Amino acid sequence: MNNKWKIWNRRFISFSFYCILLNFLMCFAGDAAGSIVSEIEIKGLYSIGKDELLYLLDIDRGKTINEESVRSGIKRAFLKGIFEDLSIETTGEEEVKVSIHVKERNVVNKIYINGDHPFSGKTMKELFPLKENQAMICDILNQAEKELKKELSLRGFPVAHVKTEIEKLKKPHRINIHLQIHSGKPVRIKKINISGTQEDIKAIIQLSEGDVYDQTILIEDLDRIKRHFKKKEYFRPVVGPYSFTDGVLNISVNSGKRLKISIEGNHKVSSRTLMKEMPFFVFEDFSDDLAEEAVHRMLSVYHIKGHPFAQVAPVITSKNDLILLNFFIFEGPGVKIQTISFTGTSLEEKRLKEIMSLKEGKAYNPDLIDADGNTLKAFYNALGYLNAVIEEFQTEYDEESNTIDILIRVNEGLKTEIENVIITGTKHTTEADVRKAVNIKPGDTYNEVDISDARFRVIELYNSRGFPDAKVTVMRDFHNNKASVTFQIEEGDEIHLGKTIIKGNYQTKYGAIKRELKHEECMHFNYSLLMEDRRKLYRLGLFTDIDIELLDRYDNKKDVLMKIQEGKAGAVELSFGYAEYERFRGILDVSYRNLWGMNRQASVRFELSSLERRFILQYYEPWFLNRPLPFRAFYLHEDKKEINIDTRETRYRIKRDTATAGIEKSLTDKLMSEVYYEFSVVKTFDVKPDVILTKDDTGTLIISGLRSGIIYDTRDHPFYPRKGILSGVSAKITAPVFLSETDFLKVMFYFNTYYEITRGIVLAASMRGGVAQGFFDTRDLPIVERFFLGGRTTVRGYEQDSLGPKGVDGTPTGGNAFFMENLEVRTSLGRGIGLVAFLDGGNAWLDLKDINPADFRFTTGLGLRYNTPVGPLRIDYGHKLQREKDESKGELHFSIGHAF
Question: What is the rounded distance in angstroms from the CA atom of residue 662 to the CA atom of residue 678?
């Protein structure tokens, strides 16, 4: 939408508002002011709830009606942007009946594109100024038609015909717009004339003879021509003016002067690296000053590489439109720093060396001397040595070893300490609270950084208590190396939060937003709290933009206008993949995350592979029983078979139907708990005889019980963590009281930690374990609940689920206990590619008493990663360190996502 459109829109809104306000004053005139509201009637309201409208108008039963507050309320209601007209009438004297009559604007639901034109529907919607979910005002539709015709004319269709039809929907004040577009005969380019250059420009540009005269493409072509000449070392090329008459397009081109640069004598630094330092093409100019700038930049590169004696000599020759610039370089020897020593300092030299950029054993860069001198002086000042002097660095060069020694002389002077901290100007906040925020006391070392930080803390204290205009001035008085610091405070007026107007929520209900906000009316004004609420709304995933605007002050209050832009709530995702166990697999996921406008979410997921068919239906309620208590419900249907990955022989098959429902609770920002009830009907068949440990391993079985857990998460990223911890523990119990046909208790834990060793290298470690015990008539767990190890997410190097107890024929049976570890060094190679070295180990046992550390099986290997938005694609090869007879040396694994 262009600026003229926006200005016209604002003018109309202002005019409409004053008409509404005049209507209100006429209806409100009389003795109603100061009366008690006994009855409220609202007519014509559809798009928002009555509670929201009355909240904005500041009208409620039993409350005194006030002309000034209702006038402010009409302003607030009008800011919603959905009202065409609004009038308020009162009848009665001491107790009045308030009648509110609302006329809402129509809101565009969908825009449909029809007719004969060469553009896609998406392009036409982008060109049409009116958008879906936008309110209609006055003759905005006619203006939109004119704007669209203008855009089509710009694209070569000057006689395009645009007609709009409005379809009223059953839902009040919701409409569809049908655009009938007939582009008409286009204007075409008969001939293209390029003047001012001998190059074949027609081969560069997108437009060609016979094409529609699209001026948007022409503008891109003019820029393309300019970039072409810059790439060929011309600077300041001029493309244009251009003209179009009777189908002939004339373009004038002046390529400008060409600069040819050559570099000789460089061996330690490549010509490509030095060419990056040339400023000529950035400034599109050539001069002696820019040539000197190029020399300075090239010398800086050599200094960084440790060549302090490097010299660069430029030689310039000109011929017609060609400038030849030759750089002759004497690199000189590479020099390293042998020692850095200090005199006159009472501080530990190690501390001083740590803060310097120059380092012993590293390349000597003379350009860092001034910077290091300033760093040392700032460090001494921070420690209270305000008069410290860092003398000029003394250097001694050894030609034989090409090393240099640096001597730094320091005159520290006397140390300055804080003698007094004085607070003045406090009225609404106690001096004790301000001193706590200052956190500077007599005897502390005088430090300007600490004082500046203290000033900002005092300002933040006042801002959080409703004083947004508070000013803090710091004054200093020095005497005999003692400093008296005064914080002079001008508190300003105390401001409270007024009403909150939410605009732009056409699909999301007011209550779904309001319940997430921590700030409330009459609270102390606190901008940090508003920003926290903004971040919280973003995390809902419903909005693409949230803008907070503070309105004019009244009665020491400020209303808050929250302008939100809703994103698409629905999504359809289709993906394909390959893994070494399942081989080819496909996933279809259909989701909607704003059911009934209350941020309720539902999804349907289909998974298909050579081994498995799954259907998952999920529902999520973020506020269960009107509390911030997330509720989830799942239904899972799966049909899968477990196989031997080498022979592809079936070990057993499972058909399962599971219903799960439960709640989650965030205890802190990092700690979450959950409780779920699970009910499963499991049919196990085609089971190899040596896998069977219990009668429940075949046939149909009901497994139901409670599962609870607690999760601690401090990771900085869910898919690519560089630091933090992810840990948790869960317990599942089944018993006849839960309608289960098998009885057991199963406990599992995991602890993952991530640490960035240096930029691009992360050390990741994991420990996982679990134990299960049957009770009543259950001795061993059914096969679907036993623990299996081996494969891409546990112990790599062993095939899927092959590690642990085995039957008489060598088929894995699973166990009732397991323990394992993973250790990875993750290295980024750039461009989304990574390399991982890992060490895995662990095993599973039939019973807790069978656990023996000597049974641990270890593997090591390497993996390749390619980052995607949902986690890394990975290939891992694990090599067995304790290979047994007839076992393979290792296994290759394909998957997506980190192993932990």
Answer: 9
**pLDDT tens, 750-797?**
999 999 999 899 999 999 999 999 998 888 889 999 999 999 899 999
Query: Is the Cβ–Cβ distance between 890 and 792 less than 8 Å?
Result: no
The beta-carbon contacts of 892-895 under 8 Å, at least 24 apart in sequence, are: 892/580, 893/579, 893/580, 893/791, 893/792, 893/796, 894/578, 894/579, 894/580, 894/792, 895/579, 895/580, 895/792, 895/793
| Rounded distance between C-alpha atoms, residue 684 and residue 699, angstroms | 5
- The answer to whether the CB of 654 falls within 8 A of the CB of 680 is no
**CA distances (Å), origin 863, targets 148, 424, 579, 640, 800:** 54, 64, 14, 28, 17
Among the listed residues 432, 366, 426, the one whose alpha carbon sits nearest the alpha carbon of residue 393:
366
Structure tokens at 254: 């002046």
239 Cβ neighbours under 8 A, 6+ residues apart? 222, 223, 225, 226, 251, 252, 253, 254
Distances (CA, A) of 659 to 606, 703, 746: 16, 11, 19
Report the DSSP pairing between strands 394-398 and 403-411: antiparallel
The two tokens of residue 606 are: 């289909």
Cβ count within 10 A of residue 102: 20
The CA distance from 497 to 554, in Å, is: 10
Q: Tally the residues of the chain.
A: 900
645 phi and psi angles, rounded to 5 deg: -65, -25
E strand intervals along 311-370 = 311-319, 322-330, 336-343
Reduce the secondary structure of 55-85 to three states and give it as a string.
HHHCCCCCCECCHHHHHHHHHHHHHCCCEEE
Give the pLDDT of residue 304: 95
How deeply is 137 buried, as exposed, middle or buried, from its count of CB atoms within 10 A (0-12, 13-18, 19+)?
middle
The residues facing 39 across adjacent strands are 97
Q: Is 312 exposed, middle or buried (0-12, 13-18, 19+ CB in 10 A)?
A: buried
User: How many CA within 13 A on the CB side of residue 243?
Assistant: 3
Q: What mean pLDDT do residues 174-186 have? A: 94
Could you give the percent of the chain with pLDDT greater than 90? 73
Query: What is the average pLDDT value for the chain, to the nearest integer?
Result: 90
Reduced to 3 states (helix: H, G, I; strand: E, B; else coil), residue 463 is: helix
Among 623, 583, 627, 625, which Cα is nearest to 601's? 623
CA distance 49 to 508: 12
Cβ atoms < 10 Å from Cβ of 602: 16
pLDDT band at 184 (very low <50, low <70, confident <90, very high): very high
> Taking Cα atoms as reference points, which of 245, 246, 207, 204 lies closest to residue 228?
204
Q: How many CB atoms sit inside 10 A of residue 471's CB?
A: 13
Q: Which helix (H) or strand (E) holds 225?
A: helix 215-231
* Residue 156, CA atoms < 13 Å, CB-side half-sphere: 20
β-pair type (403-411, 336-343): parallel
Strand partners, 477: 484
Per-residue confidence (pLDDT) for residue 584, from 0 to 100? 82
Tokens of 788: 């299996």
pLDDT at position 884, please?
87
Angle separating helix axes 67-79 and 3-28, nearest 10 degrees: 150
> Helix (H, G, I), strand (E, B), or coil: what is residue 728?
strand
Please name the amino acid found at residue 282: V
SS3 792: coil
| Beta pairing partners, 610 | none
Strand pairing report for 650-666 and 671-685: antiparallel
Is residue 823 within 8 A of residue 796, CB to CB? The reply is no
Question: Any residues with CB less than 8 A from the CB of 249 and at least 6 apart, and which?
Answer: 189, 191, 192, 193, 207, 213, 218, 242, 243
What are the strands of the beta sheet with 471-479, ordered from one edge?
417-424, 482-490, 471-479
Residue 151 Ramachandran class (φ > 0 left, ψ -120 to 50 alpha, else beta): alpha
